[in-house]
Amino acid sequence: MPDHRSEVGISHDHVERGVVCIQGLSYTYPDGTVALSDINLHVSEGETLAVVGPNGAGKTTLLKILLGLVTGYQGRVLIAERPPGRARRDGLVTWIPQRSQLNTSFPLTVRQLVRLGLAGRAGLLRRPTRDQLDAAERAIHMLELDRIVDRPMGRVSGGQLQRALIARALAPEPRLLLLDEPMVGLDPSGQEQFHELLDTVKKEFGVTLVMVSHDIRAMLTGSQRVACLDRTLHFHDVPALLTPEVLAGVFHYDLHDVSAPNESSTADEGGG
Known about the structure:
By secondary structure, the chain is α/β, with parallel strands linked by helices. It has one domain: Rossmann fold, CATH 3.40.50. Helices cover 33% and strands 22% of the residues. It has 11 helices and 9 strands. The chain has a 6-stranded mixed β-sheet with strand order 5-6-7-3-8-9, sandwiched between helices. The chain has a 3-stranded antiparallel β-sheet with strand order 2-1-4. Helix 8 links the parallel strand 6 and strand 7. Helix 6 runs antiparallel to helix 7. It is globular and about 50 Å long. The relative contact order is 0.17.
């Protein structure tokens, strides 16, 4: 059986071409708990990667490392050829949190919420430039928020709020967009619409997407590659090559009823 784990020892050229390049990443919590072990992962420009795994698999820790919010790890992590913290300050990597993590009672309009995405690039104490404000307005328009931009964010629907969070993340014109459990609370129809929205975002803004979730079924559709994480990588390849045996090993229960997307739609994306 072929080994679909990502390669150890990625070349320098491989590092330079990727939006995300992780080599030998390990992280242990202060109490001695191993969160991540020897992760090797490469995400190319314009790719959509789904990182799936059970609760406690290290997905949130990986997100925080990519954002530069967790340091003290072993190995090498680069975002657009920069250390994660610098990439975040430069607006090259942004994050869409779960909606449940947002305090919607805070007195901000939708437009003000979107413009908060410029804070990292412009600086908290500096006024955004006209070009930066124009980029925020472009995100508002593209996410079809024009009619509600002056409405308090606590008075919009869940779907509109999710679009506003995406617009906020797109405002600084990042190269990498991270999404934390983006399908939570969405029925199958809503998931399909969300995947269509992400396709539009990729075409209009040219961003690379990394989504993390425990819901393998919701993630398979629309992802060019899948990485199965349970402290270490058990699989990193196109969805068509993902087997029930790999899924069972990661999620620790039988997932034979999970079907990968049609192989013909993903085979041209290449191997691991």
